[in-house]
Automatic annotation (TrEMBL):
Location of the region described as Disordered in the Swiss-Prot/TrEMBL record: 351-377, 714-739
Protein name, as recorded: Spondin-1
Gene that this sequence comes from: spon1a
The keyword Lyase belongs to this UniProt entry's keyword annotation: no
Record key words, sorted: Cell adhesion, Disulfide bond, Extracellular matrix, Glycoprotein, Metal-binding, Repeat, Secreted, Signal
UniProt biased composition (Basic and acidic residues): 720-739
An example molecular function term from Gene Ontology annotations: metal ion binding
Predominant localisation class: secreted
Gene source species: Dicentrarchus labrax
Recorded superkingdom: Eukaryota
Ranges of Polar residues composition bias in the record: 352-363
InterPro entries per record: Reeler_dom, Reeler_sf, Spondin/Thrombospondin_T1, Spondin_N, Spondin_N_sf, TSP1_rpt, TSP1_rpt_sf, TSP1_spondin_dom
Cellular localization per UniProt: Secreted, Extracellular space, Extracellular matrix
Gene Ontology biological-process entries: cell adhesion
C-alpha cells in the first residue's frame, strides 16, 4: 500500500468517529462504498474503536442520577463532560446491546433525542449515533435517551472523543456506561390479609432551609402549604409518578390550597377511611425547640391500608413533596410498625417554571408527575452540573401507635409491638393532655415584619399545673402568619407584583414584529378584590430590517459578555448568528459581532477580598424584640485602597414576650378603729392595676389588718353607745345621701361613707367624740 493510500485510510477512520475529524482535513474524497443505511457504516465505527484504545480520565460519560440500572421506557439525560482545562471538538455517542458487535440495526438499543440542534445531530450514515453539529471547542454536551422496553437486558452507552487530532474511546471506563434492566419484580399492591385496625401518627419534618439549600433560597416567603392526604384503598390514587395531576393536586402544587384536594378525597366515599390534614408552616424551617413538627393521626383497616399525602414547597412553580401509596399492611398479615423516608421535591407537570419564583407558565399539554433532578435546568435551585442527587428537603415518619380488634399476624409480636399498642385516650384537636392545666391564651404579639410584608406573630399561655409529671405539657406557644404594620387600609385593595422578566424573542425574523414580557402577582389583595395591574407588556421589534432576496436573516443579539476588566476601562462583546444566507447566493453583510467599551468602578475601589459572612449572633435581648448582627472581615491588604463594602449587617429578631410582673397601687391610709371603745381593728387596702403575664411575678395580698384599742368601755355606757351606733348604721343604710360612691367599673376604685355626731356629751371622757369616715376599695379586677 502506498503512503498516500495509508494516509487516506487514517482520515477515513477519523470521519467514522466524528464529523469534527473530517473537518480538520481538506478531505474531499468520498468512500466508494458509502451508503445511506446504518448497516456496515456503524459497525466500521465500532471496529475502528476496537482497534485503538486510550485510557483517559479527562472525559466522562454520565447518566442522570448515576443509576446502576435503567427503568424500561424511562427517559434519562446523558451528559458528556470534559474536566477543566480539557475540551473536545467532536464526539460520537451510541447505545448498544451488551455482547453484540453493532453489525445489525437490532444491536442498537433505546432512542436518543436531540436537546440542542446547534450542538448535536444524528450521524448521517449511522442514524443510531449522535455526533456534533459543528466542530468547535466545547466542554460538555447533553442529549436525552429513552430506555428500551422491558426484556431488553443489559446495554452499553459508549462515547468517543475527538480532541485536536487525537481520538479517545474505551470499551470500559469513564466513556462507557453499562446498565441492566431494573428488577421489576415489585408486585402491584395486593389485597391486605391483616385483621382489626391500626392507628398511626404521621409527623412531617421540613428540612428545606437556606443553610442546606442556599441557591436562590426565598428568604421572605418560604413555607410549606397545609398538608392534605388520606388513608385509602388501592382503588384510589391520590398521586403517583408517571400519572397526571388531578385538579386537586394542581391547586395544592400551584396555589398551596388543599380545599379542592380534600373535596376530591371525600368524594371517594368508602375508598377513604381517614382524611389527613396538618397546618401550614411559616417559615418552612423552624428549630424543634420553637415549635413542634406538624403531625396527624389516622387509621387503616384491611380494605383501606394505603396512605398518601402531599404538601407544596412554597414559593415554587408546581413543586411538592409527599408519599404516594405507602402500604402499611405486611405480607405476614400484620401492620407496619414504622416508616421513615426522606423526601425530594417532585414536579406536578402543570407549570413549566424552573426557579422558586418563576412567573406562571402553564404546561400545555400537561406533563406527567416526575421527580425533580439536578440536571433539569441550569437556573434550577437544585442544579448540579455533575448530576448528583438532590439533598432531601423533608423527612416523614409514620409510626404505629395502637392496634384495635383481634389481630392475625403470622409473626409473633415483639416487645416493640406490645409497647406500641398501649392505647391512647382520644384527644382534643389541640392535643392538650388532660393532666395539663393552662391559662387562657395571651393576646397576639406584634407582627415580626416591620413593613407591609408577610411575617409571623405569636401568642403564649402559662402552664398553671402539671398533674402528672410523667406526661409532658406542650404547646405553650402558638404562631400564625401576619402582615406587617406598614399595610394601611388602602393597601388592602392593592396587589404586589414581581419584576418584569426578559423580553420574548421577536415574533418576526424579518421586518416589523412584536415581542412581549410578563410578570406575575406575588400577593393578591387582602380584601379579596381583583388585581387590575397588567401582567403582560407588548412592543414592536425589528431583527432584520430588509426582507429582499439579497439580504440574510440573522438571530437576535445575544446577551453582552461580562466586561473584560474587573476595574477601570474594558471591553464587552455580544454575538448573533446567521440563520439563513441570502437567497440569491450573495455574501451576507450583516454584522454578527458587536464590541463596545465598558467602564467598571475605579480600580483602587475594587480590591475587597472578604471572608464569608459569620453566623448571626444571638438576639440582643432574652425576650421580646431585639437585634442581631453578623460580620465579615477584609482579607485584602490596606495598601490596595479603601474597601467600601459593608462589614457588618444588623437585622431585627423576635423572641418570646418578656414576663410582666403584677403591678399594684400604693397602700391606702389605715382606717379608723372599728370600735369607739375597747378592742377593735383597723385595715388598709390596695388594688391590682395589671395582672401578671408571660410568667411574671404574681400579685401579693390586697388587704392588711391590725389590732386597735382606743380606751376601755364603761359598762353601762358601752351598751348605750353600742345601741346608738347600731341605730345610726341602720339609718345610714336607709339614707342614700349619706353613702357616697367613687367607683369605676374596672381597674380599681374607692368607696367611702361618713358618720356624723348627732349629740355631744359634756363629759370629759367623751370630749374626743367626732365625725368619722370609712374608705374601702372596689372593682379591683383589671379592665
Amino acid at each position: 500500500m502506498t503512503a498516500t493510500g495509508q494516509h487516506s485510510r487514517v482520515i477515513l477512520l477519523l470521519c467514522f468517529i466524528s464529523t469534527a475529524a473530517c473537518n480538520m482535513f481538506a478531505f474531499t474524497e468520498e468512500p466508494s462504498d458509502r451508503v445511506g443505511k446504518s448497516d456496515g457504516y456503524c459497525s466500521r465505527i465500532l471496529r475502528a474503536q476496537s482497534n485503538r484504545k486510550e485510557v483517559n480520565t479527562e472525559f466522562r460519560l454520565r447518566v442522570e442520577g448515576d443509576p446502576e440500572s435503567y427503568q424500561p421506557g424511562s427517559t434519562y439525560r446523558v451528559t458528556l463532560i470534559a474536566s477543566s482545562p480539557s475540551y473536545f471538538r467532536g464526539f460520537t455517542l451510541i447505545a448498544l446491546k451488551a455482547g453484540t458487535e453493532g453489525d445489525r440495526d437490532e444491536d442498537y438499543i433505546g432512542n436518543f433525542q436531540i436537546i440542542d440542534e446547534e450542538e448535536t445531530q444524528f450521524m448521517t450514515n449511522c442514524p443510531h449515533a449522535v455526533t456534533e453539529s459543528t466542530p468547535r471547542r466545547r466542554t460538555s454536551i447533553q442529549v436525552f435517551w429513552t430506555a428500551p422496553p422491558s426484556g431488553s437486558g443489559c446495554l452499553l452507552l459508549k462515547a468517543s472523543i475527538v480532541q485536536k487530532r487525537i481520538i479517545y474511546f474505551q470499551d470500559e471506563g469513564s466513556l462507557t456506561k453499562r446498565m441492566c434492566e431494573k428488577d421489576t419484580t415489585d408486585k402491584p399492591l395486593l389485597d391486605c390479609c391483616a385483621c382489626g385496625t391500626a392507628k398511626y401518627r404521621v409527623t412531617f419534618y421540613g428540612n428545606w432551609s437556606e443553610k442546606i439549600h442556599p441557591k436562590d433560597y426565598p428568604r421572605r416567603a418560604n413555607h410549606w402549604s397545609a398538608i392534605i392526604g388520606a388513608s385509602h384503598s388501592k382503588n384510589y390514587v391520590l398521586w403517583e409518578y408517571g400519572g397526571f395531576s388531578s385538579e386537586g393536586v394542581k391547586q395544592v402544587a400551584e396555589l398551596g390550597s388543599p380545599v379542592k384536594m380534600e373535596e376530591e378525597i371525600r368524594q371517594k366515599g368508602d375508598d377513604v377511611l381517614t382524611v389527613i390534614k396538618m397546618k401550614a408552616q411559616w417559615p418552612a424551617w423552624q428549630p424543634p425547640n420553637v415549635r413542634a413538627a406538624p403531625s396527624a393521626e389516622f387509621s387503616v383497616d384491611r380494605t383501606r391500608h394505603i396512605m398518601s399525602f402531599l404538601t407544596m414547597l412554597g414559593p415554587s412553580p408546581d413543586w411538592n413533596v409527599g408519599l404516594a401509596a405507602e402500604d402499611l399492611c405486611t405480607k405476614e398479615c400484620g401492620w407496619v410498625q414504622k416508616v421513615v423516608q426522606d423526601l425530594i421535591p417532585w414536579d406536578a407537570g402543570t407549570d413549566s417554571g424552573v426557579t422558586y419564583e418563576s412567573p406562571n407558565k402553564p404546561t400545555v399539554p400537561q406533563d406527567k408527575i416526575r421527580p425533580l433532578t439536578s440536571l433539569d435546568h441550569p437556573q434550577s435551585p437544585f442544579y448540579d452540573p455533575e448530576g448528583g442527587a438532590i439533598t432531601p428537603v423533608a423527612r416523614v415518619v409514620v409510626e404505629r401507635i395502637a392496634r384495635k380488634g383481634e389481630q392475625c399476624n403470622i409473626v409473633p409480636d415483639n416487645v416493640d409491638d406490645i409497647v406500641a399498642d398501649i392505647a391512647q385516650e382520644e384527644k382534643e384537636e389541640d392535643d392538650t393532655p388532660e393532666t395539663c392545666i393552662y391559662s387562657n391564651w395571651s393576646p397576639w404579639s406584634a407582627c415580626s415584619s416591620a413593613t407591609c410584608e408577610k411575617g409571623k406573630r405569636m401568642r403564649q399561655r402559662m402552664l398553671k399545673a402539671q398533674l402528672d409529671l410523667s406526661v409532658p405539657c406542650p404547646h405553650t406557644q402558638d404562631f400564625e402568619p401576619c402582615m406587617g404594620p406598614g399595610c394601611s387600609d388602602e393597601d388592602a385593595s392593592t396587589c404586589m407584583m414581581s419584576e418584569w422578566i426578559t423580553w420574548s424573542p421577536c415574533s418576526m425574523s424579518c421586518g416589523m414584529g412584536s415581542r412581549s414580557r410578563e410578570r406575575y402577582v406575588k400577593q393578591f389583595p387582602d380584601d379579596g378584590s381583583v388585581c387590575t395591574l397588567p401582567t403582560e407588556e407588548t412592543e414592536n421589534c425589528v431583527v432584520n430590517e430588509e426582507c429582499t432576496p439579497s439580504s440574510c436573516l440573522v438571530t437576535e443579539w445575544g446577551e453582552w459578555d461580562v466586561c473584560s476588566a474587573t476595574c477601570g476601562l474594558g471591553m464587552k462583546r455580544r454575538e448573533r448568528m446567521v440563520k439563513m444566507p441570502p437567497a440569491d447566493g450573495s455574501i451576507c453583510g450583516a454584522e454578527v459581532l458587536e464590541v463596545e467599551k465598558c467602564m467598571m468602578p475605579e480600580c483602587h475601589t475594587i480590591p475587597c477580598m472578604l471572608t464569608p459572612w459569620s453566623d448571626w449572633s444571638d438576639c440582643s435581648v432574652t425576650c421580646g424584640k431585639g437585634m442581631r448582627t453578623r460580620q465579615r472581615m477584609l482579607k485584602s491588604p490596606v495598601e490596595l485602597g479603601e474597601c467600601t463594602e459593608e462589614l457588618e449587617q444588623v437585622e431585627k429578631c423576635m423572641l418570646p414576650e418578656c414576663p410582666i410582673d403584677c403591678v399594684m397601687t400604693e397602700w391606702t391610709e389605715w382606717s379608723e378603729c372599728n370600735k369607739s371603745c375597747g378592742k377593735g381593728h383597723t385595715i388598709r387596702r390596695r388594688v391590682v392595676n395589671l395582672e401578671p403575664q408571660f410568667g411574671g411575678d404574681p400579685c401579693s395580698e390586697t388587704i392588711q389588718r391590725k389590732k386597735c384599742k382606743i380606751r376601755k368601755c364603761n359598762r353601762g355606757q358601752a351598751n348605750s353607745d353600742e345601741k346608738k351606733r347600731r341605730k345610726e348604721q341602720r339609718e345610714k343604710r336607709r339614707s342614700k345621701q349619706e353613702l357616697h360612691h367613687h367607683t369605676f367599673l374596672c381597674g380599681g376604685g374607692i368607696q367611702e361613707r361618713l358618720m356624723t355626731v348627732k349629740q355631744r356629751f359634756k363629759t370629759a371622757q367623751l370630749s374626743s367624740c367626732k365625725d368619722r369616715k370609712e374608705i374601702r376599695a372596689c372593682n379591683v379586677h383589671p379592665c
